[in-house]
Amino acid sequence: MTNEMKKDTVICIKKSSVEVPMKLTREQIRDIKEKPSLHRLDIGHAVSTYIGKAEKVAYGLFSVRANRSYWVLYTPVEGTSVVELYTVVLGKLEVEYQGRSFVLHEGDILDASEYPELLSFYSELGTEILIEMTASVFDRNFTDTEIVQREADAIEKVDGYTYHHCARIKDYSIELWKRLNQPIERVSMLRWGAYFHDIGKLAVPLGILNKIGKLTSHEWEIMKAHTTKGAEMLRNHEIEWIRNSAFIVEEHHERYDGKGYPNGLKGDEISLEAAIVSVVDSFDAMTTDRIYRKALSIDDAIQEIVRGRGTQFNPMVVDAFLKLLHEQKFKWH
């Protein structure tokens, strides 16, 4: 993202709908972050702290870590006017919306209801954000996130590589989805399907996951089963929008030419969501050190992706991915 506001960008900054907008001093921010009685979640890119609620509005402190991104999609509830406000209380926040970028500084308030499409946020040095949201919506989101984070933590305990790998796949998959101008209402499925694409590896013995040397045919069958096992885990999940992501987990090792697994799907039989995860997953795996091999260089990994265009990978997704890498000066975070 750019660090300067583009001149043609219109910023919709709304004052809080509550009578007295809540403001925080630096001392209050520090107290909230240190107070042991407050409920908080560490979700990797940020720490979310539930402050409390009043007049049907919940308040939270969202502490975004340096050099991290996250996304917001305003989702109205039928028959209800949903409050969803983000106030920068410390630091600054870069915002991208429909290809345009602007910066929120301390005291600026963003009203998410003014943005029907996906909002992307980036914090370069770390940012403290006060969230004001309709309490029923905030409570549901906070509870669902807590459940999901427990499962993410379980993955990290089994295989730290898989945990960080999955976070990167989620981030880059969403960026590709945006660039391909796909329906915004499906981004939640992509987000969680990408994040949990390897959750089935919880059922694969570490001796196989980290084996140095070629897998036996029996071990390879066990490894391949992580797609169907992972999909089954998600289809039985207690959260509906996680269940809806199961198809991505099942399909992310299918190939464009039909030679993938588990079902030998080909071409457009493979969902675009899974085709995106396939490209990003492969590139990240190639450019990351593992116990059993060293990472490829960015250039070598790009050549592998190009060679797989139209055989292993969806050509449209490859082209969009290469353009994304070019715009990022071929850096991989």
Q: Can you put this structure into words, describing what you see?
A:
By secondary structure, the protein is of the alpha+beta class. It has helices at 26-34, 135-158, 160-179, 187-195, 206-209, 217-224, 226-235, 240-243, 246-251, 272-286, 298-307, 315-327, and strands spanning 39-42, 46-54, 57-64, 68-72, 84-90, 93-97, 100-104, 109-111, 119-123, 127-134. The strands form 2 sheets. It has a 6-stranded antiparallel β-sheet, sandwiched between helices. A 4-stranded antiparallel β-sheet has the order 4-9-6-7, with no helix packed on it. It is globular, with a radius of gyration of 21 Å.
Low-confidence stretches: 1-20
Helix content: 25-40%
Count, helices: 12
Shape: globular
Sequence of secondary-structure elements: HEEEEEEEEEEHHHHHHHHHHH
The count of β-strands is 10
What is the terminal-to-terminal distance?
14 Å
Radius of gyration: 21 Å
Query: Which structural class best describes the helix and strand composition?
Result: alpha+beta
Share in β-strands: 15-25%
Average pLDDT confidence is 88
Order of strands across the main sheet? 1-2-3-10-5-8
Largest sheet: 6 strands, antiparallel
